[in-house]
Specification:
With 208 residues, this protein is α/β, with parallel strands linked by helices. The chain is 55% helix and 13% strand. It has helices spanning 2-12, 27-38, 45-52, 57-64, 71-78, 103-113, 128-141, 153-176, 189-207; strands at residues 16-21, 41-44, 92-95, 118-125, 180-184.
Length: 208
Amino acid sequence: MEQKIEIIKEWLGTGSINIFGLPFSGKDTVGLRLAEMLGAKFLSSGLILRAAEKEDKTLAKELAAGNLAPTDTFKRIILPYFSRPELADYPLILSSVGRWSGEELDIMGAAIAGDHEIKAVILLNISENEAKKRWEAAQILGDRGERSDDKEKNILDNRINEFMQKTMPVIETYRRQHLLVPIRATGSRDEVFANVIDELAKIAEKER
């Protein structure tokens, strides 16, 4: 795996990899590990927005209901991150950055402007049924912290619906641009991560 990691690093440069998937598909788990392996900075739109909701009651209400942040709010909070000086020399691993159809165009533009061009978009594929099973397990384990959008089953249903209606068109845009990397995400964490590395290394080899 070490050789594949080096090939990916060389190909990625200061570019970005964006990771999408249904709730509980493992986006942050894969993203954090990938960032560590590649010496990259990890940016989760969910984490950034949940921090911002402390000062924005309207945003807090939307997120607590399982809705996506309004696009104007999303752009105002998230887009400046791509031009932050402290991130300039690093590649970025993005967790679901730009989840509402149309936001992907602003994300790609901001990424290029900040010298973090999006090089690949990973889609962690699990079924809706698997997402719900993982939610049920998380309720028992209590391993998701105090996330307001994880508390109720109906909120999870809304999050899944938001993904299907608003995020799937985003993913299709990336597919048309030949950036999409589908990954079966139903195995163990190590298996899923190994598949991600294998697929990224294949792309890196082709583009060397």
